[in-house]
From TrEMBL:
Keyword Oxidoreductase part of the UniProt annotation: yes
Full protein name: Glucose 1-dehydrogenase
InterPro entries: NAD(P)-bd_dom_sf, Sc_DH/Rdtase_CS, SDR_fam
Gene Ontology terms for molecular function: glucose 1-dehydrogenase [NAD(P)+] activity
Lineage of the species this protein comes from: Bacteria, Bacillati, Bacillota, Bacilli, Lactobacillales
Protein EC: 1.1.1.47
Amino acid sequence: MANRLKGKVAIITGGVAGIGLGIAECYVREGAKVVVTANHNVDGGKAAVEKFGSDVSLFVQMDVATEEGWQKVIDATLEKFGKLDILVNNAGIGGVNGAIEDLSLADWQSVIDVNLTANFLGEKVAIKAMKETNDAKGSIINVSSVAGLVGLPFAPAYSASKGGSRMLTHATALNLAQRHVDIRVNSVHPGWIDTSIVPAAAKEQIIKSIPVGHMGKPEDIGEVCVYLGSDESHFANGAEFTVDGGQRA
């Protein structure tokens, strides 16, 4: 299938590696123009644009935890592509894990800033851009985690940030719907996805915990995001899409 996102413009944060790149690949395949971002992985951003083509893609280096970073990516998107249809809030960090009494405030805050505050900032500027350039229509997708559904005992900051993203999704979706603004907001909750951040030594044990017997691929999240970004999902709003091979079934 192709052209499910034809004519649409999407921003995908953290879109140059791992899950974000998988989403971007699916989006370009389906006809979307994509703006991918990263804070540190500039080489990955350049490689993504080279792969997709500069006519349908753009890389913007940004810090998702700052208003300045968000204004930068919105300005660049509108300058190149003229509008915004889809925002995928995908950028995230795992942070420092451990017993909560051993974590510093800085450890906590860095995760909250990137995983939750950035989603608030992204929603805020994306909604304004969609109102100004796309007749107040669009789709926002917050990539949360299964840790937003069930807490991870040694990742309190990560669990809190992903749970917060889940509830931010619900609140924003309801707020927009009750004001009759045709911008949908949904969350995606990946389980174990086979990316470079998964420790090789832990893979065998992780796979044993997954009912289907294998980890997911970045494209597995990308395909769900295609659906949520497309007009096919016009009645999906404020919903949670868990993609974890049955772990939370």
